[in-house]
Structure formats: structure tokens, C-alpha cells
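Lab notebook: predicted structure, single chain.

Context: the supervisor wants predicted structures on file for every construct in the current expression panel, including those that have not yet been purified. This is the next one on the list. No modifications to the sequence; it matches the entry in the shared construct table.
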Amino acid sequence: MTTNGGFEPVFCTIVPPHVLDRLAQAEDSALSGPARRSLEHDAYQRTKRRLTTVIGAPSVAAPRGTAADQPHRTIYDAHHTQELPGTQVRAEGSDPVADATVNRAYAGLGATFELYLKAYGRHSIDGNGLPLDASVHYDQNYDNAFWNGEQMVFGDGDGQIFLDFTIPVDVIGHELTHGVTQHTANLEYFGQSGALNESVSDVFGSLIKQYTLGQTAAEADWLIGAGLLAPHVHGTALRSMKAPGTAYDDPNLGKDPQPASMDHYVRTGRDNGGVHINSGIPNHAFYLVASAIGGHAWEKAGQIWYDVLTGGALKQSAQFADFATLTVKAARERYGAGDELQAVQKAWEQVGVRTL
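Prediction complete. Output recorded below exactly as produced.
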């Protein structure tokens, strides 16, 4: 069940379509080939995801005897095919294997489970102990990672622009958080509600990395996908929450198009109305809130965002102003009229989003 009744058939990838579109036009086939193949595959998966509204997704429950406060992880190897899930290579509680990709996926699923449990009392993605499955080595030179509504899937990257997609733990947390949103606010994946959907995943993906590293808001890099770009690429990550629009500026990738405020809001019909681009605005608002409050960002700033995501008042079609207004309300209800409330109000004002 979702808070708002029914699942939105969303297919979400960590690499935005506009990035792959740019690479697909490269003269070098080593760059354009994998990008085109990834775009074609993503289009197929997007269509397949929509079919779940017709035929329904399979029901998945935790095995009997599984403790609610423990993850139940299974990692599969797709052996560079598109057959899911693939061959099981590591189960919950088993020792690390020789394949570092498998071990990173296992650890990332665990880190995500732990943040949601320890910080917010949430038992897995659905709040009810959902098993966490992931497939690695998906397809050949696949330039993406995604949550398909049932499991995580990781490509190895093309080695030219993108490296292994299990390297950044925030990528894993980002995609799994799409599952949390799916089971709670179920934000529509278009326009501002879609940008909020993406932003929520960036927020908690970043918090999972910070929690894993024990970082404060001041110590965090606030980058999404750091370590994913190949060494020669002119960039540090896919996105920057601290400074949207500065994550990369590369001859092949182009320049990071994310705005940091409504002054530069991008109106486009591509990428579901710019969901990966305009997410920079609420991303920046969260960074400002967390930095103003200080300390560990998952404790207060993250709690406010989690309260809004799971509280039941956030509509599927919510706009930035709707979300901002609910964060103000959540901050006031949880912390009173103190520094936390002022931080939230000031952050939205700074990025040009009015609270109602």
C-alpha cells in the first residue's frame, strides 16, 4: 500500500536521460555506442514498468523467521545479460566473495537499511521488512543503475565515462529511496512533483553516505555519484547539492544544467519535464537547512524531510511550494519555533520557493 493509494509506475535511473542523450551524439563510438544502448534499454524498462499497473507486480515478503530489524539481502550476477535476477552469488549473512562489485552492492543495501532503521525506525524500503535484492554486472557496458519497483540493478559502466555503478554508496541509497517514495508519498514523476521525487532520493542518498562515513553536514561533500566518473572526465560527480550546476563541465558530457534557485528554473518537455534538472532547487534547499542546523544532517534536517515524505499530507502531484510548506509545518511541530524552523524558512526563501 502507499499513502496515497496505488503505485505510480515509475522507472528511475541515476544517470539522467539528458546526459546519455549528449553522449549518444559523440563521434567516438566507444562513447556513443554504450550510451545509445543504455537509452534503448531504459526505454524498454520504462515501458515494462508501466505494465505493472496492468498485470500487477509480484508480492514480495520477508522469509519467515526474518528479524524486522535486520536486512535480508540477496545479490545476483546477471553475467552481462539482461536476464533478471541472474545467478545468486551472495546471501544475507554470508562471507564476502572475490567480486568487489558484489560486496559493494551488499554493503550499500545494508547501509541504506541501517540509516532508515536507526534514524527513522523504518523497517526496509516498504516499512515492513521488504527483502533487498540486487543484480550486478547487468548487460554490457550499461551506463546506469536503477530500481525497477522490485529490486536494484547495477551496470558496470562503459569504462570511458562511467565506472562501476556500485562504487558510490549514495547511488545505491538514491535508487532504493525511490522505493521508499513508491511506498509512501508516491510522487508523480513529472514536472515539479517528479523533481521532488528525484530530490528526495538525492537527499537520503547523501544522508546514507554521510551516516556511513560518520560525517557532519560541514564535513560532507554533498555530491551525488562522486567516484562514478572516469578519471579523465572533467567533473566530480553527477550532481552537487551544495552548488547545483557545478558537478561537471566536460566536452563529452556538457555542463551540469542544474539550477540552484527558481530564478533559473528550467522549463522543458524532456526528461519528464526536467525532473533530474530542477531537482537542484529542493536539493539546494535541503543543503542550506542542514548546514544552518549543523551536526549530523540525518538527525534534524533529515527527520523533517522524512516526516513530510511519510506523513500522509504530501500529495502525489505536490509542487515545490507544497513540499516547502509541509517542511515548515513539520519543523514547527517537531522542534517548535526555534533554530530548525528558521533554517527551513530561510532556505526556501533563499532558493526562491514561497511557503504557503
